[in-house]
Design a protein that fits this description.
The chain has 100 residues and is mainly beta. 6% of the residues lie in helices and 38% in strands. The chain is built from one helix and seven strands. The strands form three sheets. Strands 2-3-4 form a three-stranded antiparallel sheet. A two-stranded antiparallel sheet has the order 1-5. A hairpin with a 4-residue loop joins strand 2 and strand 3. It starts with a strand and ends with a strand.
């Protein structure tokens, strides 16, 4: 399955609300959505969603109607092995199911 990061995952990786952090592995220098809602205004039917700002900080206050980037996440089943590669564009991971 492919999805978006949750704010929990971004936080576990080292992102912090209100603190610039360019040292954790999810930092890209770009602003992108998470899939975690932060606020819903029932009077206007408008919602805000958590996002990772280009400085690496986590922020809950962007309206869902704004255009931001996405960082897809692929979830792997238990037993999947990395057989080669280092995860870079020139050497992507090659994965295989665990031998039975």
């Amino acid at each position: 399955p492919v999805g978006l990061l949750t704010i929990d995952e971004a936080s576990y990786a080292g992102g912090k609300y209100g603190n610039y952090n360019r040292l954790y592995y999810l930092y890209t220098g770009q602003t992108y959505w998470t899939m975690s809602p932060s606020f819903f205004d029932s009077a206007t039917a408008a919602a805000t969603v958590w996002f990772v700002y280009s400085t690496g900080t986590l922020n809950p206050w962007v309206w869902s109607s704004n255009g931001l980037g996405v960082r897809p996440v692929v979830n792997l089943n238990p037993g999947v092995l990395i057989t080669s590669g280092n995860g870079t564009a020139s050497s992507p991971y090659v994965i295989a199911a665990e031998a039975s």
